[in-house]
UDP-glucose 6-dehydrogenase
Amino acid sequence: MNITVVGAGYVGLVTGVSLADIGHYVTCVDVNKDKIAKLKEGLSPIHEPGLESLMLKNIDDNRLSFTSSLKECLKDTDIIYIAVGTPQNKDGTANLNFLEIVAEDIAMNISKDIVIVIKSTVPVGTNEYIGELIKAKIPKDISFDIVSNPEFLREGSAINDTFNGDRIVIGAENDKAASIIEQVNKPFSVPIFKTDIRSAEMIKYASNAFLATKISFINEISTICEKLGANVDDVAKGMGKDKRVGNQFLNAGIGYGGSCFPKDTNALVQIAGGVQHDFNLLKAVINVNNNQQTLLVEKARQRLGSLKGMRIALLGLAFKPNTDDMREAASIVISTGLLQEGAEVIAYDPIANEVAKHVLSEKVQFANSINDALTEANLALIITEWREIIELDFNNVRRLMIDPIIIDGRNCFSLDMVKDKGIEYHSVGRPALKGESVLI
Ligand SMILES: NC(=O)C1=CN([C@@H]2O[C@H](COP(=O)(O)OP(=O)(O)OC[C@H]3O[C@@H](n4cnc5c(N)ncnc54)[C@H](O)[C@@H]3O)[C@@H](O)[C@H]2O)C=CC1
Ligand SMILES: O=C(O)[C@H]1O[C@H](OP(=O)(O)OP(=O)(O)OC[C@H]2O[C@@H](n3ccc(=O)[nH]c3=O)[C@H](O)[C@@H]2O)[C@H](O)[C@@H](O)[C@@H]1O
């Protein structure tokens, strides 16, 4: 099939590269000309394991190309995937401006019957709304079908998730359109779930909201564990052994960040409000998460008293490991809180330093290695569980820091690993270790 993917961001790029890899001919279109220039040179604008090599392979095989002109590729296209952003408005609703512009662009340039697939995460009813917008502007002899095909990839494991996903959801208004998109996706060998358009749109929000709920739930449990001397990691493991609970997404820590959980949970609260339903449970999930992001600053304050003049190392900045994405990263809230208290902040991320320089306050200093960050620090905060951070050398912590105190926001180490290492270690939902294995 000849496929055009509109929006070469995270989702658009992974979608385009993967569809090419299973044998389709794909053109990715983006209005950002710098991004397209980079992509044409074979460089991925995002850090995502496996993406760039797969991209190069498919460019070499002439199945993947890039352009900034939608008009240019619409002539030969059978299917258009839309993967533009749907960011959050101030009131929490999803902003559909990018989608509306693309709809207009498609309507102006469409010259044959096609299938339009919306991959972007959109409120229930949006596929129909976009369909109406296009319909109103195209010649009467041209027809198209709209298909909702929400995306479930995770950043940092996007390629693996695409080829080994749990399901592909296809929401269509008729069997013909559904079966075209089913055929397109068949080579992935991922189970396909077909439904109506509105249900497909809701599956996406409900899935993200449910995962966010699991995270806030375990974070609440972690707070209680900490007060009662229990260990939340063992509690989560014990819970997860029950298949009905499941063992994933029960890692307590500093809350969820990223480009999707925060915006999608807020959007679902607004979607519910739009039909006069007060989504109290999800509001609580969001509140718990907001509080959780301030936890490390609070723990630092409790431990050191005043943070004024304290040199504090932030280890990891991205919202999760294996990505350079800083959108809604907890490091933003944490570094702001520390600076407000008068601390000196030295930040280090194995990959996201450059992106973070444009996102964090100018007052944040950047280190080129973990050791540089730790040198002469009074305290180290672990924000992101990168492999390099999980493999932290405790000898260096003792040797380089003024006081070897770690507050770990991701529970990177078991208490046994840190015991007897001469380090004061605080984590989330577990007893603290002071120096030589003394429980505080
Ligand atoms: N980032 C992620 O991991 C996931 C994102 N999603 C959803 O997918 C959608 C896209 O998200 P991301 O890829 O993260 O966004 P992004 O912001 O990384 O990329 C969007 C791209 O669309 C381009 N664009 C905007 N207007 C355009 C136009 N008129 N024509 C052509 N290109 C245009 C932008 O220049 C940008 O490169 C959102 O709705 C998001 O909620 C869903 C699952 C995972
Ligand atoms: O709609 C989206 O954009 C995507 O959002 C999430 O993917 P992503 O945000 O890339 O990453 P996750 O692995 O879900 O992590 C999100 C946040 O939750 C945090 N998290 C995750 C799991 C956990 O147990 N505890 C926890 O605090 C992570 O540190 C991170 O900050 C979903 O997992 C994807 O299925 C979905 O497609």
